[in-house]
Design a protein that fits this description.
The chain is an alpha/beta fold. The chain contains 17 helices and 14 strands. The chain folds into 3 domains: 165 residues, Orthogonal Bundle (Arc Repressor Mutant, subunit A), CATH 1.10.10; 101 residues, D-Maltodextrin-Binding Protein, domain 2, CATH 3.40.190; 98 residues, D-Maltodextrin-Binding Protein, domain 2 (3-Layer(aba) Sandwich), CATH 3.40.190. The two termini are 36 Å apart.
Length: 398
């Protein structure tokens, strides 16, 4: 996580922009007027932007100021929403006055919480943040005191977040991502589209559509920074919800597995039975279910859409062993070196089929199409670079 602005400076910025007055912003933020003036100056220096036009009647956001304000207000609303939920919990469980996390928590405290949520421990979080472990522990406990509710549970392997701790960490992480995106928005407004795009992928999409889309994007924005992450669906979904990736591309679950994400279908993908060239079934014009059950299989893990299709179409009675793997590399190697079969998308082995290493067997799976597309956060506001990628991806899918 890159260094982030002071959250109190961001709050002062938003108040000044909306009230058009440093004096009124200082009163609303419970700060002195010089403190607010200094906070605005620091933000302008940090981003090398003029955010306000100073007039005798007050301060007014410039075009760049409005761009910054849009991201800042989204970030602050995420923290405020978390604060409201924490306050409701305090009122339900005790007579104490709820803490004001949105006004009192610091960037350092929230960064510590997010790092602990991501790594599962104080030591690992400290390494990620480049801080001493006592500093991270102190920041976490100070935040818990402000919140007025337990945010952490001690477990044998380290520390786990409570439900409210996870809720606050999730919203803090997304708030930080909004602030990071502000840098891209401001550069784009200045005509510098360098930007950053982080894509989470599942096996299906990596072989064909994604490389084409990324290549086309790089032609338009050669200075863009692009990262492609690989992993299981559960890990990628968590990364998406925490703002660690911008979008997830692959087979959709339908319905979406969480209420804070949404799915956008790009195309329907069919499945096929794949075997090595020269397999005993290769060349047969008609293949029965009994023929397929006579050979061992390579399958995805349970709970994935393709595994559900395998169980429905082929089934498994224990007469042969299954190799479970999410790895396309391992699957290809096992198919080439054995008589095992796999039910996958032909898109995943396009090159091997073209070169004659693998073959598609004549098994009709036309009724087992699966939707492939994007999973993204609800109310996500993409940068210009990210929006361009989405447009390219949709065009390729069509």
């Amino acid at each position: 996580m890159s260094e982030l602005p002071n959250i109190h400076h961001l709050r002062a910025f938003a108040l000044a922009a909306r009230l058009n007055s440093v004096h009124r912003a200082a009163a609303a933020a419970h700060l002195s007027q010089p403190a607010v003036t200094q906070a605005l100056a620091r933000l302008e220096k940090r981003y090398d932007c003029r955010f306000f036009e100073r007039r005798s009647t007050g301060v007014y956001p410039t075009e760049l100021g409005e761009i910054m304000l849009a991201r800042v207000e989204r970030a602050l609303e995420l923290i405020s929403e978390a604060a409201r939920r924490l306050a409701e919990s305090v009122r339900r469980t005790s007579s104490r006055t709820p803490g004001a996390v949105d006004r009192l928590a610091t960037t350092a405290q929230l960064r510590a919480l997010v790092a602990i949520a991501r790594t599962g421990g104080y030591s690992a979080a400290a390494r990620e943040l480049g801080l001493a472990q006592p500093s991270v522990h102190r920041a976490a406990r100070d935040l818990e005191r402000i919140a007025g509710v337990p945010l952490f549970d001690r477990i044998s392997q380290g520390v786990a977040l409570t439900a409210l701790g996870r809720m606050l960490a999730l919203r803090a992480a997304l708030a930080f991502r909004e602030i990071e995106a502000a840098t891209d928005d401001l550069e784009e407004a200045k005509g510098l589209v360098r930007g950053r795009l982080i894509i989470g992928t599942l096996p299906l999409i990596r072989t064909e559509i994604l490389p084409d889309a990324v290549t086309e994007l790089c032609k338009l924005y050669p200075q863009a920074s692009i990262r492609i992450d690989d992993g299981s669906y559960s890990s990628q979904l968590q990364a998406l919800r925490m703002g660690e990736i911008d979008l997830l591309i692959g087979a959709l679950r339908q319905p979406a597995p969480a209420d804070d994400v949404e799915e956008v279908a790009l195309f329907e993908d069919t499945l096929a039975v794949i075997a090595r060239a020269g397999h005993p079934l290769h060349g047969k014009k008609t293949i029965t279910r009994e023929n397929l059950r006579a050979f061992p299989w390579i399958v995805p893990r349970e709970g994935t859409p393709t595994r559900e299709y395998f169980d429905k179409a082929i089934g498994h009675d224990g007469s042969f062993g299954l190799i479970e793997t999410p790895s396309l590399v391992a699957l290809r190697g096992l198919l080439l070196k054995s008589d095992r079969l796999a039910i996958i998308s032909p898109r995943q082995v396009t090159y091997e089929v073209r070169t004659g290493l693998l073959a598609t067997l004549p098994v009709d799976f036309s009724g087992l199409a699966r939707p492939v597309g994007l999973t993204q956060r609800k109310n996500w506001r993409p940068t210009r670079l990210q929006a361009a990628f989405l447009k390219i991806l949709r065009n390729l899918a069509e």
